[in-house]
Every structure is written in C-alpha cells, then in structure tokens.
Fold each of these.
Amino acid sequence: MLETNVFDRLLDSVSFIENKTRNCCNLLVCGDFNSRTSICPDYVVNDEFDHMSVLPDEYISDTQLPRFSQDEGHVNNNGLLLLDFCKQTGLRIMNGRVGNDSEIGRYTFVGHRGCSVVDYGICSQNLFNFIKEFEVQEPNILSDHCMINFSFDFIKQQVSDAPSEDFEYVNSKFVWNNELKEEYLEKLQQSLTTEKLFELNSNISCCTDSNNIQSCLSDFVNILDNVSAPLFKKKIYNVDQNETENDYFTEKKPNSMV
C-alpha cells in the first residue's frame, strides 16, 4: 500500500527534473499506485481567467479532459493523493482517455474480492498527441493485475531527398564472435575503460540540456568502439555506384593502321 510520502517523493522528483530542464521536458509515470480515482478530475476545474482574476499573467489554465472508468464511484485515499499529484504537476491519466481504452477505462485489477482500476499510465498532457496505442489487456493467470500496453509515435525526422553521393558510405560493421567473448569482457574491465565509464556516469548525472546528452552519447559510443573495434569490427568494401565503366566491360578500340 502506498504511503502519503511516496507521492511527496514523486512530486519532489518531478520538481527536480523540471528545474534541471527549465521546464523543457515531458514526463511519463506508470505502475500500480493502489489508487482508485473513479472519474474525478485530475486537473483544476474552472481555473480560467474569467473565474479567477488574481491569477498571474503567465498562468496556463488546465484543459478539461473527460475521463471514463469502469471503477466509477469508487475513490480511496491514495486516489485523492494521486489526483492532487496530477493537479500539482500537470500530468494527466491516460486510462479511459486514449487508444483502445478511450471512453472505457477498463479494470486493471481483477481479484476474488472484486475489480478496480489501480494501475495507471500518467504523462504530460503534451504527449497525448503522440500516443499511438494504449490498451488494458485481458486478465491472465500469472497476475491479478492486467498488463497495460502503450506506445508513442513521435514526429519522425524528414529524410532528405539529396542524391546518394552526398552521403558517406558505411565502410565497416561489427560482427559478434562468441570465441572472443572472454577477451571482450576483460577489455571492458580494464582500469582505463572502467575509469572512462565512471566519468561518463558522473557526466550523465549532470546533464542539463540536449547538447550534454549528445556529448555523453558520443563518449559512450567511443568507449565501446575502442573496446570492440579490435575484436569485432570488419571492413565493408563498397562498389562505387556512380562508376559507369569497368575494365571487363569497356570496349577497346583496335589500334589504328597507317
């Protein structure tokens, strides 16, 4: 059973992330909250400027999002805490709103004493536009909690139509060799490699923007490349696609006779 201070810790974590990223982030929280929320609003009701003239200019009113639930009419203490958590953070419950669960809000717990909705997917409202699927699956024999399956489909980067010669050919690839497994593990455990990994771990903890993250990702790739390349890297020989002539197919003219 969740305690009050669990939601306090969640709120502290969200506040920490938002401060670190200067509110340039979207958040996702999911799991068993042991919270029954019925269809109670997880947003502040009637907080528009028309109703509250004392709100600051930068205040953004909550969007009214209807929510459905088969557990309608049942709310417990943890449910009230979860609803308050959503109102304070701007996160919104996905159950009963999106995907195959839209306008349903299926039970997520099915036990011998009854059914309820206590497992949730909760995310920033900005992410609702990118939810590809959300489904509460049927009860199973492995657990009295139903599995929740969801995914996001974010905007994909546009692929350039530039001609192929503008791109670099891939000139190598990594091929795993199980016979070199022990040697690979030994290289990973070498002091120089472990020092770099520890340093990388520290840098990751201090990331504050996308440039820091990209830098850490590059460092991680370089560390693995230094260890893996001598063992598994193989050269790829590319045929020049622009080549129109070949020694074997080039027609040779006979020598001129004088």
Amino acid sequence: MPNKTALTLTFLSIFSLPASAEGLYGSFSLGNASTTDMTEAGKSASSVSYALMLGYEFNPYFSEEIGYTSLLSDASLSGYTGSTDTTVSTDGIEVAALVSWPVSEQLSIFGRIGYAVLTTSGNLSWGSFTIKNLNGLVYGPGIRINLSKEFDIRAGYTIYTLNGSSAWTSQNGSTWTNNGDAVINNNYLTGTYHF
C-alpha cells in the first residue's frame, strides 16, 4: 500500500498543473528574423525582430494572443544585381493560439499557430517596392518557464509562410508587379506579465 501511495504522489507531482495565472496578459518579444525568399528565391535578409502582444490564458493548456509584429526593420536585402544599399522592412498584425503541455510546475512546452497580415516595403538604388496584404500561416514550437504567478519567459521558433503580390516603382516612374511570397524564420525570447 505505501508503494502505491508513493507512486501516485510521484505521478501527480510530475504532471501537476503549473502555477500560471489564468486571465489577461501582455508580452514583449525580442529575436532575430531571417529570410532567403523575399520577393524571389535567393533574395535574403535578416534583422532584429520584436513584438508586442496582448493575450488571454484560458487555462494552463490554451491561450490566445494578438498584437503588432516587426520581423524585418531596414534590413539589408542581398541578391539584387545592379542594386546597392537595398533595405527591406516587414511588419503588421499577428494573431495566434498557444497549446501548452505542463512538464512540471515551472516548465511547459508549447506549440503556437496563427495568422499574420503584414506589409513589406523596400528601397533599392534604382527604385522601390511594396508588398501589401502579405498574409499567411504562422507556426512553431517553444518552451515556457514560470518565474512566478505573474511573470514567465518563453523561448521559441516561428515560421511565417506568407503570400502576396509586390508592386514595384523605378526611379523613372515605371511600375510593375511581381511575386511577393516570402518565408521568414524567427527565433525569439518573450517576457510575459499576467495582470
């Protein structure tokens, strides 16, 4: 009988719910975003990324959040022949759901899936381009560490698979459209405060 009791207590301690605060939370993320497919295959850029999110944790297993994301900020865009000082910026709105599995009272693993509506603008030595309605799926894994009932930190990796059409303007006023698809990878750290 004592062995069964010890086994039960051990099982409950391993799979106990984390001491996270259900309800409204705010978060700030800082990371590094990169792409090798901006407007065309082989056109690469990387930059510091950041995000401000407002979310709601329904229980230790499920949360939803929405906010502003900046993936590329005046990032140097390489791969364009005949252009120097090429820069690109990508930002917009993102909404996502987090599905978490508590490993212990302090540690959880999670999967994040959502949708982003972004805009990209770029400047080249011979013109500029804009990709509006650059929309697509957002997904990736991560871990969360509960520091207290109010504070936690996350480390994660997100893939943005985006589709859009780019509008180009040359210095002489000529305009044309092109493929605006992009895949952006983002590694990040997030600090969260539960109100």
Amino acid sequence: MRKRVLIMRRGSSEILYEVIGQDLQEADLGCAYLDNADLAAVDLSGGHLIAASLERADMTGALLRGTDLRNAHLAAALLVEADLSGAHLAEADMQGAVLWGANMARANLEDAILRGADLRGADLSHANLDGADLTGANLEGANLMSADLRHADLTDASLSNANLTAALYSPFSERFPTRWPRGFNSGECGAVIAEA
C-alpha cells in the first residue's frame, strides 16, 4: 500500500506537495508543516527542510542523508534507525526525539537542542555537537568517536557504554566549557581536550 501525505506551508493552506510513495529526494520543503506526519522509510536525502515543523512525525527508517534541517522543529519526532549522516541540523529543536540506532555520522548538530533525546546506540562519530544541548539525553552505547563536544551541555546525560574515543571537548572556554554529567571523568573515557 502506497502512503499519501499532503505537505503544506506553515501558516498557510497552500499545498506544497502531495506525496504518494516513498521518494522525496532533494525536495524543497522549507517551512513546511509536517507535524504528526507519517514519513516512515521516506527518502528525503539531499532535501531542504530549513525551519520545517516535524514535531511528533514518524520518520522511522527515513533516509535524510545530507538533508538541510537547520532550525527545523523535530521535538518528540520518531527517528528510529533513520539515516541522518551528513545532515545539517544546526540549531534544530530535537527535544525528546527518539533516535535509537540512528546514523548521524558527520552530521552538523551545532547548537542543536537535544534535551531528553533518546540516542541509545546512535552513531554520532565525527558529528559536530559544538554548543549542543544534550541535557538529560540518553546516549547509552552511542558512538561519539571523534565527535566535536566543545561547549556541549551533557548535564544529567547517560553515557554508559558510549564510545568517546578522540571526542573533542573544551574544559575552559570564553563561551562555556563542555559540561559533563555529575561524577563523569572525561579523562578516563578517551576524550581529548580541543586546542584553543
């Protein structure tokens, strides 16, 4: 059965796309209103979803490789095993999003809001998390190898079994230092101090 989704511009009754099927590669959906949409397994690779609203959307298994999601609203979105590798998520609001096993390798999450997000088993290797808010996020078993955690806030985050080998962090900074969970020893996890 092929799914049918109507995509509208936020604050308007204008229909941008009527999607029948699974392929939206390189679609321009900037400012689109997609709250609660069923986009499971849809291919949005290389698309432009700048400032799109995707709150509570089901994007389980979606392909979002290299997609531009800057300033997008993804609060409580379901992104289980989604492929967000190389995606641009700077300043995206992903509070409470579920990203179990998601591929976010080399994604740009600079200043993204990931408070309370569930990132268990996610691949964040080489991801840019500079300034990201990961307060209370669950990163159990996540791969953060060579991730940029400068200025990131990991207060109350769960990092058990997370791979932080060669992850960059800033213990001292004019902006603010990397904030680790209480009692966490950054010196024992393999993370590396970023050069000024």
Amino acid sequence: MLKSIVLTLFSTFLLCELSAQNTLLIRAQVLDSISNDPLLYASVVSEKTNEGTSTNEQGIFEFKTKVLNEKDSLLISFIGYNSKRVRIQDLKKQNYKIYLSETTEFLTELTLEPKKAVWYLQQAFENYDNNLDSNSYRFESYFKQKAQENKRTLFHEEAYLENYFKNKKDTSKDAQQASLVLFWEEKDVHDLKFMEKQRKKYAEKRKDKKDSTTIDVGFMDAKSFMMDYYSIANMMDPKNSNYLKMIDDMDEDKVYFSEKKYLYQDSSEYVSVEYYDKKERARITCLINTKTFALKRISGNVDVKIPILLRPVLLVMGVRVKDIIVDFQVDYQEIKEKMYPKMAKIDLKLDLVNFRMFRKNIPAIINSQQLCVITKLKKNQQNPIPKNQRIKSELNESEAFNPAGIQWDDISVVK
C-alpha cells in the first residue's frame, strides 16, 4: 500500500585514490546528465569481481578494489537511465564526472486497459516461483535506522551484517538469519518528549499490573514506531508470500489503473503497473519485467486512518492523531533471470497532538526511516548462520561477531 515513486536520476564520480594495503578507495557521486541532481540508491558493480554497492541519500558511494584491478570497469545503472561502464583508470580523464542520460529515445508511452494491467500482475503472480532461486544463499548488508521528533534526533543506528536466506523448501521458522559484524550509534540524541509525564506515569502503573491490558501511552518510546531488523529483511526476501497475497487479493473492481510506461535498462523491458485502492487509501506501483514477469520493484504509499471507534479512546488518553503516512520501496536485482534482494526502505511520518482541555495543545511530528542495502551477494555460500552468532530482533553491539576484525573503512558503504 504505497505511493508511486517518481524517479529522478543522475550520476558523477569524484575519485579519491588511497593506496593502503594495495587497495584503491573510489568515492563517487552520481548526477543526471541534464539536471545534475544526485542519484539515490544507484547500483554500482565491479564487472571483474561482481561485488557492488549503492549510493546513499546524497548520491555518494565508496568502493574498494585492489590496485591490481584498476583496469576493472564499474557498471553504474538505475531504472530509466542508460547504464554506463567506466574503467577505473579512465576516471581522471573524464574530470571525475560521469553522467547518465535518461532513456528517452527508448521510452514508449501507452495507455493500458484495465484488463491489460491486471494481466501483467497476474503473470507476475503465476511466474513468481519460476523467478526465484530455489537455493539458500548468503549476502552482506548495510542497515540504517533513524528517528526524529520535531527534527530532534531520538536515535540513529547503523550496522553491517552477514545474512542468510533459507531455500524455499525449508519450512523452519528461521526464514531470515543475520549475524552482526559492525555496529555504530549516535550518542548525542534526545529523549522522546511527546506526553513525557503521562508516559512515565503509565509506565509506573504497568509495573504493578504485570498482565494489564489497559490501553495507555506507557508503551511509547523512540523505537516503538520502528520495525525490527528481521521485519525489514523479510520485506526484501523474494520468498515473502505477502506480496503474492497482495496481488492475488486485489479487487479489480475497486482498483484504478493510470497511464503506464515501458522502461528499458540493459536491454531489459519493464512495465510499470500502478493501482489505487480508494477504500484502503493505498497506492502501489509494481515494476515488472515484460519477458520473465519478475518483479523489479514494489513501492507505494498508504495514508493510514485511525478507526472511528478508537478515536474516543485516544482522546481520553490525550492523544489526537492528525496523520499517519507510510512510504515503502523494495528493489530486486535479476541475475541470470532469477530474483535476488537489493534494497528495502520504509519511511514513516506520524503527526500527533497532545490534546489538553483548556490548555494549549502540544504538537509532535515523528519521522523515522529504515534502510537496508545489499552490498555483496554470495550465491555459492549456502550454509546457515550458527545459532550462537545470530542476532535477536534488536541490534546490540554486544552481539557483534567479527573474527576477521573488519572495520568500517574496509566496507564499500558511505555512513
């Protein structure tokens, strides 16, 4: 349930060569050839080693390679733009800048009839299993989560993890497994101020009522608005059946299909199918390969409304919810016509008011973001993560398992 994402793309490289332990550190930013805007989450892959990374919110990425591989080429790509291959040793000759151009010459616009659009979704549903890698595999990922209240940071954490997705036939509960390698958290943060006194009061009462089911605000803290890491990982897992259920349960009579476009990238053709469910106040966009019907992206927006019967209860507690908006995006990568995870992102905006009779109301806007980017896919490593190395639902530095002594500087991500 979510809002279609408007793609604005670009690309530039600022090369910073560091010769340390026979490695080169490439620092890059990506710009659109016309607007010079930075590209968020663009894909950068070494053609020699198949290792890759993605740009951050500023369109910047860092990539390490051995000096011996300086003749290697990097492939920079993003949906809707012409991909570009650039040799590392040629970056200086190009003035540290490489521009990606929009694929306007290959873009064909057309209006899809409702049945046609539905047909693409049905094909994605019917071919879903064929587009999955049936084997287990490991991958490395970079994870970030941050929350703010009225632009004051409540917490900010970043982590690097070793992950494992089980094969489809494995019916065990541990669908996702992860081991924490590196952890960082911002120390200069603030406490949640929204209804601070009331929350402390209710929290004290909860201590005396172990099994209390009373609805109050005592549960609220900085992380109560966030999903745990395994929930984010589950969003990326191509074997996640929730997306299939979402497509299969779609009510054609209540869905509106708008004009669509065919998008070309690396000789692959995609169609963007968007539908809006007025009842659920949800808008979802699916990017589908027209040949394999593999899902390339699922994104969207939902405007959550509080049930009418719950509103009086919240008002008694002194809480008025003005708005809840959730945006999400899940990207997949296709390797030899199989779907693998690439990136998952979820943003939440919560507009609250502490309603006070005969006194001035106190507003609070809570913003949170969680982002997970796959930095290295290990298809040939199919062994599960040992139980004593797996993290629990929340990240904790004490659970880090890093026998190789990896440092943040060793990783191709920008913090």
